[in-house]
Design goal:
The chain is mostly beta strands and 420 residues long. It is 10% helix and 30% strand. It has a domain of 137 residues: Immunoglobulin-like (Sandwich), CATH 2.60.40.650. A hairpin with a 2-residue loop joins strand 10 and strand 11.
Length: 420
Amino acid sequence: MATERPRDSRHEEIEAIVETKAGGVTETRDEADKYTVVGAARRRTFANWLTPIEEHFVCHRNDIPDIDADAWSVALTGQVEGDLSLADIREAYPTVAVAHTMECAGNGRGQHRPETGSVQWGFEAAATAFWTGTPVSSILREFGVESPDGKWLTAIGGDPADGDDVFARSIPLSKALDDCILAYEMNGEPLPREHGYPVRLIVPGWYGVNNVKWVEELRVMNSMVVEDSLDRDGEHAYWQQTAYRMHPEGVDPDSNETIETVDTWAQLEGAVEYPYTFDATVMSVIGTPSGDEPVPVRGDDTIEVRGVAWAGDDAVDRVEVSTDGGETWSDAELFGPEYSGAWRLFRYEWNAEPGAYELLSRATDDLGRRQPATISGPDAWRDALDDEFPWNEGGYAANAYEPNAVTVELLDADDPSSAE
C-alpha cells in the first residue's frame, strides 16, 4: 500500500526540527522509516501546564509541504461550496484561543510487549498549548450549515503523499461545530511549519491524528470518509478506516460510513467492533521528581510530586500517587488552569526518607474510568478491560500507568558522603 512506504526524507526533517527546537525534543525510534517523530526530551516537560513550542512533540507521515501562504486557500466542499484565503480565515470571522492537550494516538505504543507498529513512543507524545484561530462553526454557519444532523466533517491535508493519496480524517460535525478551530497561531506565535503552517484543524481533547495539519479542504458529508468518497484521485480512506483503529492481530477491519458512539473508551467496551481513535483516554504522567538525578532530603523535608493528567472530552476527577511501586495509593491535589480538552496539574506532598523508590500516578475521569495498571498480552483483547489496557495491533490509545513509573533515589542531605 502506497501510504505505508518508507520515507527517506524524514531524517532531514527530524534533524531540522530538533535543531529548531533547541534540544527540547529528541528523535523517537521508527525502524520502518515512515514517520517524522520527535517527542519531549525530558520528563520535566510534564511538570508544567503549558508546553513550550520547543518541547512540543511532532508526528506526521508525509513531507512538510512547500508553502506559499499568499496562495494557500481552504476549499469548502461536499454539502457546502466555497473557498477561503488565509486572509478570509483571519479577518472575516471571530478570533478565539483554545487550550488543547494534543496526544498522539500511538503514545505508549513502545510499551506493548510484543512490540507493535513502527513508532516506539513511551509517554513523550503529549503536550498542551494554546491555539489561536477561527471557530469552524463561524465559517460553516455562514455557508448555511446550522445543524450537525448526523453529518461528518472531513479535513484533508495538503501534505504531499505517495502518488495521489491524501491524508483525510473525519470527525462528527457536532464536534466540529462545538469547539473546533482552524488555527494559525500556537502559544501566541505564528504556527510553525512542522505543526501545520499555515493552518491546521484543532479538535480539543481528541487524539492528534484528528487535528489535521496543512488543511486545504473541509468537506461536509453524510458519512465518514470511505474509499472513493472524495472528488479526487488516489486513496482516500486509509487514515480513517484502516490506520488508527484498534483491533487484535491479523484483523482487517471493515469500513463504516458512520458510527453512533465516538467516545473511544465506550467503543472499546463494545459499542464499535473495531474502535476508532477519537477522544483521548484518561492518562497521567509524573513530571517531577524526574529520576534523572538523586534528590537530597533532610529529616523534615517534603518532596512535591508534580505531574499532569488528562481525559479527552471528559474531565479528570481524581489523581492518585504511589511511592512504593503501587502497593499503596494517596490522593493528589488537582490545581492550576481548568479548561475543557486540556490537562490538569496535580501535586502530592511526599514525606520522604532516603532510599530508592518507584513512583506511579493513576488518574480517574468524571465517568469513573481509571487508568489500568498494565497493557495486556495479544490474546486478551476486550477481556483485558478490567485492569489492563488491551494490546492492539496498531498500539493505539494505551493509557496503562505501570509503564510510566519513575525510579527516584533520595539522598540524606545531612550525610557528607551523599555529596561525594
